[in-house]
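Hi everyone, sorry if this is the wrong subforum. Our group has a chain we'd like a structural model of before ordering constructs, and none of us has done structure prediction before. Sequence below.
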Amino acid sequence: MKSANGKSKKKVENDRKRKVQNQNVSGESVNKVKVTTDQGDFSIPRLSSMNSDTGLSLPAPQMYNGPINQSTPNQLHYGQQNVLTGSAGIYASPVMQTDVNSRLDAICRKLDGVSEQLRKLDLMEHRLNGLENATSAFKAEFGSMKKGIAELEKSMCFINEKFETNKSEIVGLKRSLTNVESRTDELFGSGQSLCDEISGLRDELDDLRGRHIDLQARSMRDNLIFTGISESPRRLDDNGGPVSEDTEAVLTNFLATTMEIEGVTFHRVHRLGRPTPGKNRPVIAKFVLFKDREIVRKSARDKLTGTEFGISEQFPKEINDRRKELYPTYKMAKRQGKRANFVMDKLYIDGVRYDDSRSEPPRMSQRQVEPLHRTGTDRDDAQRMDVASGSPNRDRGPIRGGRGTARGRGTARGRGPRTGRGRGRGAGAGTMGRR
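Answer:
Right subforum, don't worry. Here is the predicted structure as C-alpha cells:
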C-alpha cells in the first residue's frame, strides 16, 4: 500500500509538472491544431503519439456555446469519442483509456532505472575521486622511489668500485699466499731435517747427562756423610777472629771412640751447610782408600744401632731423587722379611730388580714412617738422602772428585729421572767447597 500510495502521489506530481510544461501524460509536447468554425478560429490540442499509438484519427471537435464548453478550451480528450450534434453544440463524452496506468507504471519503472543509473554514476564518481587521490599518492611515492633508486645506483657504483679494488687486492693476496705456501713447504723440509738434528742432539744430551751423572757418582764414590756428630761452639782466637773447628780430628775421634776404628785417612773432611744455633751440621768425609770407606760403612749397622748417629753414602741429586721414589718399596720389602738393597738408583728385592713402571709403589701410612733420630743406619734414609744430595748447603760446593779410575763393580751409568734443563748439580759435582 505504501508503494502504491507513493506511486499515486508521484503520478499526480508528474501530471502537475506536465500541465505546467504543456506536456501530455507520456511527456510529449501537445501540438495545437487550428480549427475554423462558424464561431471563429480556435486551436485544440492534438497528441500525435496517442493517435499514432491507437491508430485512431480524431476529428477536431467543434466548439459551441453550450454547457459543455464551460470547461477549459484546451482540455485534452483521449481515446475514441462519440460526437453528438445538436442545436446546442457538440457534446463530447470522455472514453476511459485502458493502457494509461500501464504506461504510467512503465514510465515510473524507467524513472526508477534512471535514478538507479544516476546513483551508480554518483558511486562511480566517488570511486573515481578515490582513484584520483590514490593516483596522486602513487605519483608522490613513485617520485620518492625514483630518488631512492638514483641514490641506490650511486651506492651500487661505489660498491662496484670497492669490489674491483678488493678483487685486485685478493688477487695479490693469492699470489702472496702461493709464495708463502711454497716457502712453507721449503721450511717444512728444513724443519724435518732440524727435527732430526734436534732429536739427535737430544739423544746426545741424554747421553752426556748420563755420563755427567756417572762422573758425579764416581767422584762421590769415596765419600760418606756422618750425621749426629756434635759440633763444638765457635771460639775466638787471641786476635778476636773466629777459630775454625778441626773437623777431621773430630771425625777421627768419633771413629775411634764410637766405632772403634783407627788408622783411617782422609782427603778432606768438612761440615755441610751454614752454622745454625742448636743444630749439628752433617760431616762429609772423602776417604783416601775405598776399603776404609767400606769398613766404616759396614760397621755402622753394628756400632750405631740405637744411637743418634748415622752414616750414609753420597749420590748425585738425580740418583738420590730416584732412591727417594723407591724408598717406600724398600721399607715395605724389609718389613716383609725380604732381602732388599739399593745399587745406585736401582732397587733389588731378593736379587731381582724392581720395576716401578709395572707395579704401583706401596703407600706407607704415617705410623709406618720411623722417626728421624731412632737408630744409626736404620734412621730415615730419606733424610740422609737429602743430606747426601747436598741440600743443606746448596751454596757451597762439595768435595772435589775422586780418583780417575773407578773401583769395585764396573761403571754405574744409571740415569736418573730427567729434570728438564737442569744439570742436577747436587753434592759432589766435582768442585771443592770451602768449609
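For your construct planning: The first strand starts at residue 31 and ends at 37. Residues 44-96, 361-380, 387-435 have pLDDT under 50 and may be disordered.
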